[in-house]
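Help! Submission page says 'invalid entity' but I think these are all valid:
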Amino acid sequence: MPDKTRIHWTDDEDLLARFVLGQLDAGEALPLEHHLQECERCKEAVLAERRIAAGVRLAGREELKRRLARRIGQRASGDINWYRVAGIAAAVVLLVTVAIRYQWLTGRDSPRDESSQKIDSVSRPPEQAPAPQVAVERPSIDAMKPTVTQKETESLAGAGARVKGPEADGKKTIREEKGKRGEPAKLGLAKEEQAFAKKDQLAAQAASDAEELWAQGTLAPSVVVTRLMDRAANLAADAKGVEVVTRTQSALLDSATLTVTQRPISALPSMQKGARRTDAVQTLFRQNPAGLQITLFSDTLLNARELAQASIQSVRQDSIVLLLGNKLIGYKTPSGWLRQQKPTHAR
Amino acid sequence: MRAPLYYLTGDAKILDLIQKGDEEALVILYESNRKPIQSLISKNSGTWDDAEDLLQESLIVLWERVRSGRFEQTAKLSTFLYGTARNLWFGRLRQKARETSREIDPEEHQDHSPSVLDNLVATEETMQVRVALGRIGEQCRKLLLLFYWEELSMEEIATQLGFANAETAKAKKYQCKKALEKALSAIQTK
């Protein structure tokens, strides 16, 4: 039993911190290390101080890394590569020169005929186009009212269609000339826009149904899988609220499905790229009524067999261990995040 | 007799900036060392993302060493960064090779060497400390970062944070550590 009456060197906060931070020279540190071998209380104090130092350092490194990534990003977006700009400008000048020369050699700069003028007037943007030779009669709002309701007007306008008006009475206009080519394209675009809008809506709906969590996984070497399973089982026995799940205990996990996929690191959203630890597997957990989806962002970690056989090795109140083939990945999760469902093997 | 003129070299200027805590020094080093490190990593089966990570980590190693007074300049900073990135990368490659070449051996049940779960738990606890650090006051957070991460002396901390003297900083550090331990304990009992 630890002796709490004696004064130990670890009671000196300053000395303890200097020991843990490696700021003592060998002559100072050696007797303290000897004392540690026979003093449980001191060992615990050193361990606790090491944890604090490691955690604070981890926080410091991550903060600096984030700040550095932000500075680098700002610098990259603010810099103008003048060599590149000069190169592009030179290329444009060259192209224009060649085009003019070509036009001159092929005689295209001779007086234009009427048809070429007509083509030009059609292809120019409306604000630059010369006044049309045929008068265009715009339908008045009053004229539209009796035939088209407001709702129909909106839907037609959205689809790029035009309301029938006086100009449609057999008169050929420049707008109609344009419409022949432009309207089918407009209609196609409108359909695409509608499809995109629908997709966005579905994605937003799905996002609201799912609970997302980004977590950094710590990879454990394969050689300890069996030991780890034993230790996890012991932990389960010791700690309240711990569930340990192995492949043979799948009955515990029948209530939901687990889907594990892998994507390359380059597919990470930019925000997550900045936050990514290099020694960890950046992972997206998504919970929805269909089950738990886990997406691992790694270039080299897994093969298809490992993905297909993935299973949750253990679930604690605030952590989860994933087994992938012979690899284990541990994740820290917000307390209770995974309590809502019990995941099972991948399918 | 005329006094000799001393000019700071590029590296000396950068080290001076780091000692003053100016992070712009890291951006300058990042830009001047990006290409050789990208080339090193891409020639050794790494990606550009790996190279970016390694360069940033090497810069952080340099920052920590200089700020804690443990940096001894024996070569150019670019050589230091290249060497650090190379060591980190080959260390990772060796680790990956070990992981993929060894299968699970039931005999290893008998192995009593420190379990990786201990490391995993240790990592979790470290993460908990990091979380707890975010739950204490801003001044305490800064003080503990300056003490444990940047390894500044109490005099330097007092100057940076505007305390009257080193003794005041020391007393404050004690309070902050207690606050951190309390926050940590709250996280662990949840």
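Support: the input was valid. A stray whitespace character was the problem, and the output above is from the cleaned input. The radius of gyration of chain B is 22 Å.
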